[in-house]
């Protein structure tokens, strides 16, 4: 499982990614730090617009062209900063060392090529092998992601497959590069519940077989509970709480984490009125100086509005940015 | 006291023909989107319709909203068949049955102010004078937790949760008896979902409106509904009061759905039922029980005969041979 003592395979330090628009600067990612160790699954949870996907795209160096720029911070992959690499070097790193699965398999596969052509391209890029060997490996890769009759499926186009199957093909393409780090950005959000469970189990099996590390981006605490070793909760561009899944679920220490967990309807127990968080997240163009959750927080005091709280340790390996935790 | 039946769906079927070619069309068969389903909704109650994509839940809600003509069977609202209505009678029906859809970004007209969107259904149903309509809009916005002056704003000025409130205000405008809620919270953020679910419950408690909640999230269904119907490939496979169903899941497909609900707390128990493969095509659904191709408990009989819904305990209907003897 988690090898916390080992060197992290991916380390993000004080990452800032901003959008420069005519109307102002949108601070989508505003000081994010975390580390991902070999064989570990780290969940990055938060609501839309909290910056979780932008964090992933910054790490992959795939930010939308034009307005978005990473203005500060370091992204260390196996100890080397990839933010300073040239676009050409990045192309080599992507796919072979770090890969990504997106939410919608429909948009990650090219509709005019067969899945076999797309998979073989990825394999050939790594092995430069003979046609026959590449083909054999491609069929094997499809079998590994539980696609029945891969010999027939390999000649099909994406539109001939169901959503779950397409996402498994994407998984096969990603795994063919044998990356050490995988970023999965809401990979099951577009899938049906029974298919979601199938896919999560598949990812878990592949992760155990290869020992790769996964950064799992999601808004669903159920997915985190099922998949992750550690979890980081994001709010308005920053991580507000981080710890092992057990620590964060048993003892959520940031009021935002607590509220998020409490507002989800449960499958057991009495049916009560749901807990709600009043108001809306702050605009990323006009962030409060103090704690970003303070305007919605039931426990906020003057200090919360004035100064951003530093990380306070709740336990070893579990910390949260909240003034309530000071000197306890 | 037994609440009066508001909506009755009887042996409803909707088959879509599939054809090939443009000039010399050749029939390839029918997609049996909805295939012989029956259920009732009492006044002021909520029925949850659960199932995966392609199971026919959206077609069912379209049939109930009279946006589609059924192939067979009928839908009765307050005892009167709804299909085949024309003119004034159809307008009256539209006032009684309203809908809120999943995506609050596409369900509001971006070129109309919020007030105008809400007024639209009042004008169509001939609700009253301009003054009365303006008053009603103020009242509706207040009911869904928005400010009266926001009636002058356009949809793009609102967040997703607020838009869903506006869609709800528009649906409530004509004082409907039934609102079809098609995945009303699944496009919203977790913290906003709870707000909308609480609001829906408040409105139901006050106005005694009935809901047909189409949803895939079982925890949401448990929280919101009185009755639950589980659909698979155009058929209802299990139908029971929500409390009974969540306490005693019987059909293997429902069991698999429950097992796919991710745990609210970390646990790594491995007794999950993971279904192999995908939902078969409704164009040629498997013979016998439609679930037998994916069912972990399938017997030889399941491929030959189609099980019918029958009562296993009072109010709890299941279509599965495993529970026949009970």
Task: Summarize this entry quickly.
With about 325 residues, chain A is α/β, with parallel strands linked by helices. Chain A has helices at about 50-60, 85-95, 105-110, 115-125, 130-145, 150-155, 165-175, 195-210, 220-225, 245-250, 255-260, 300-305; strands at about 10-20, 25-35, 40-45, 70-75, 80, 100, 180-185, 215-220, 230-235, 240-245, 310-315, 320.
Give the topology.
The complex is a heterodimer of chains A (328) and B (326).
Chain A: E1 8-21, E2 24-37, E3 41-45, H1 52-60, E4 68-77, E5 80-81, H2 87-96, E6 98-101, H3 105-108, H4 115-127, H5 131-144, H6 150-153, H7 163-176, E7 181-185, H8 193-210, E8 213-218, H9 221-227, E9 230-235, E10 238-244, H10 245-250, H11 255-262, H12 302-306, E11 312-315, E12 318-320
Helix pairs in contact in A: 4-5, 4-7, 5-7, 7-8
Chain B: E1 5-20, E2 26-42, E3 46-50, H1 57-64, E4 72-77, E5 80-81, H2 87-96, E6 97-100, H3 114-124, H4 130-143, H5 160-172, E7 178-182, H6 190-207, E8 210-215, H7 218-224, E9 227-232, E10 235-241, H8 242-247, H9 252-259, H10 300-304, E11 310-313, E12 316-318
Helix pairs in contact in B: 3-5, 4-5
């Amino acid at each position: 499982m988690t090898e916390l003592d080992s060197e992290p395979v991916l380390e993000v330090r004080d990452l800032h990614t901003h959008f420069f628009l005519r109307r102002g600067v949108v601070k989508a990612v505003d000081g994010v730090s975390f580390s991902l160790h070999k064989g570990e699954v780290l969940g990055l949870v938060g609501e839309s617009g909290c910056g979780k996907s932008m964090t992933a795209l910054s790490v992959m160096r795939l930010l939308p062209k034009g307005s978005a720029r990473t203005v500060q911070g370091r992204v260390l992959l196996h100890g080397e900063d990839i933010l300073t690499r040239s676009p050409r070097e990045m192309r080599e790193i992507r796919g072979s060392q770090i890969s990504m699965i997106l939410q919608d398999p429909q948009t990650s596969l090219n509709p005019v090529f067969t899945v076999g052509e797309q998979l073989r391209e990825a394999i050939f890029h790594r092995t430069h092998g003979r046609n026959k060997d590449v083909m054999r490996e491609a069929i094997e890769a499809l079998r590994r992601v539980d696609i029945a009759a891969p010999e027939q499926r390999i000649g099909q186009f994406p539109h001939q497959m169901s959503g779950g199957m397409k996402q498994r093909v994407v998984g096969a393409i990603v795994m063919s590069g044998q990356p050490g780090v995988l970023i999965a950005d809401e990979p099951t959000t577009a899938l049906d519940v029974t298919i979601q469970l199938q896919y999560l189990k598949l990812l878990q099996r592949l992760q155990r077989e290869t020992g790769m590390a996964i950064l799992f981006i999601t808004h669903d605490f159920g997915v985190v509970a099922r998949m992750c070793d550690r979890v980081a909760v994001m709010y308005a561009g920053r991580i507000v709480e981080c710890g092992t899944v057990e620590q964060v679920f048993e003892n959520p220490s940031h009021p935002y984490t607590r509220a998020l967990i409490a507002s989800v309807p449960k499958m057991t127990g009495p049916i009560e009125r749901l807990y709600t968080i009043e108001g809306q997240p702050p605009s990323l163009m006009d962030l409060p100086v103090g704690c970003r959750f303070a305007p919605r927080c039931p426990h906020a005091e003057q200090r919360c509005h004035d100064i951003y709280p530093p990380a306070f340790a709740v336990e070893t390996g579990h910390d949260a940015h909240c003034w309530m935790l000071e000197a306890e | 006291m037994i609440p009066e039946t508001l909506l009755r769906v009887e042996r409803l079927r909707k088959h879509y023909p599939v054809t090939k070619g443009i000039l010399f069309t050749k029939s390839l068969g029918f997609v049996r989107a909805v295939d012989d389903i029956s259920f009732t909704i009492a006044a002021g109650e909520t029925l949850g319709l659960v199932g995966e994509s392609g199971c026919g839940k959206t077609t069912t809600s379209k049939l109930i909203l009279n946006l589609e003509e059924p192939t067979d069977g009928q839908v009765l609202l307050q005892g009167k068949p709804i299909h085949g209505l024309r003119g004034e009678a159809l307008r009256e029906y539209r006032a009684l049955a309203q809908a809120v859809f999943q995506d609050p970004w596409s369900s509001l007209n971006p070129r109309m102010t919020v007030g105008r969107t809400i007024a639209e259904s009042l004008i169509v149903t001939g609700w009253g004078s301009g003054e009365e309509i303006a008053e009603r809009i103020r009242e509706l916005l207040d009911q869904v937790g928005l400010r009266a002056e926001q009636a002058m704003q356009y949809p793009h000025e609102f967040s997703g949760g607020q838009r869903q409130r506006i869609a709800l205000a528009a649906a409530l405008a004509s004082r409907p008896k039934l609102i079809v809620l098609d995945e009303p919270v699944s496009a919203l953020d977790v913290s906003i979902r709870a707000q909308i679910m609480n609001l829906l419950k408040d409105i139901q408690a006050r106005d005694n409106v009935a809901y047909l909640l189409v949803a895939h999230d079982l925890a949401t269904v448990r929280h919101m509904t009185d009755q639950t119907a589980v659909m698979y490939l155009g058929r209802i496979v299990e139908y029971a009061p929500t409390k009974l169903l969540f306490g005693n899941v019987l059909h293997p497909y429902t069991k698999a759905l429950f097992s796919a609900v991710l745990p609210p707390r970390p646990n790594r128990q491995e007794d999950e039922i993971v279904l192999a493969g995908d939902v078969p095509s409704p164009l040629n659904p498997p013979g016998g029980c439609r679930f037998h191709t994916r069912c972990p408990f399938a017997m030889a009989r399941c491929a030959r005969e189609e099980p019918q819904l029958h009562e296993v305990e009072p109010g709890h209907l299941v279509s599965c041979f495993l529970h026949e003897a009970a």
